[in-house]
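Go through this fold for my students:
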Amino acid sequence: MEKGMIKVSVLYANGDGKTFDMDYYLNKHIPLVGGLLGDSVRGASIEKGLGGAAPGSVAPFATMSNLYFETVAAFENSFGPNVDEIMKDLPNFTNIEPTIQISEVM
């Protein structure tokens, strides 16, 4: 991604009793979000946690996803009107409340 772009990270923390359905996420939720946000998304990545720093340890995050936008306004203008529809889909694949961070690509 290019310097100055906006990266929106969505992190789903691992932990006891937390569930995450990767199949639903990849095949239903991501297409839903992509369709709603449309051309404002300039790139995306999805990462499945495999482990922590210590050998054999659990990954701190079950999944981390990143969406890239030209500007914060582009993110806000596409996400804002669709936030309710996006958030109401979460219980279909996880019981984890996501942590969202907006960053600038350096």
